[in-house]
From TrEMBL:
Similarity annotation: Belongs to the universal stress protein A family.
Domain UspA intervals: 1-139
Protein's UniProt name: Universal stress protein
Pfam family, one: Usp
The organism of origin for this protein: Aliibacillus thermotolerans
UniProt cross-references to InterPro entries, sorted A to Z: Rossmann-like_a/b/a_fold, Universal_stress_UspA, UspA
Length: 139
């Protein structure tokens, strides 16, 4: 169905559900590939530095958050690559997606950011409005 899919993920339950859909979109495609983009919000990055004080430990925690998604993709024998980006999640995902030619962008309707859990219109809305390729929002 799709060969090149971008999955925006942060380790939240919604992003894990979105990963299942992303995997199903590329499964069975000879050249199927999933790029996972994890955007590190500037404010979150600051609080992580204060909490952990070590960038290596912070990076390890972020990779750990994506572990269920990585395991799912490995189990399905799918090609994937993880990209860590810094910035405001909505615009950063949009920029990343639009710089590459994805068949589809998949993301959860909510993420880990407590403020964004109150309203769908934050990251997922920005991505739906501004990404050039089709977007699937999973709730």
């Amino acid at each position: 169905m799709y060969e090149k899919v971008l999955l925006a993920a942060d380790g939240s339950e919604h992003s894990i559900r979105a990963a299942k859909h992303a995997a199903s979109l590329v499964k069975g495609q000879a050249d199927g590939h999933v790029d996972i983009v994890y955007v590190i919000d500037v404010e979150q990055s600051k609080s992580d530095v204060l909490k952990y004080g070590d960038t290596t430990l912070m990076q390890s925690k972020r990779k750990e958050a994506l572990k269920p998604i990585v395991e799912m993709l490995k189990e399905a024998a799918l090609s994937y690559e993880i990209h860590f980006k810094h910035g405001d999640p909505g615009p950063t995902i949009v920029k990343f997606a639009n710089e590459r030619n994805y068949d589809c962008v998949v993301l959860g309707s909510r993420g880990l950011n407590p403020l964004q859990t109150m309203v769908l219109g934050s990251v997922s809305h920005k991505v739906m409005k501004r990404v050039k390729s089709p977007v699937m929002v999973v709730k």
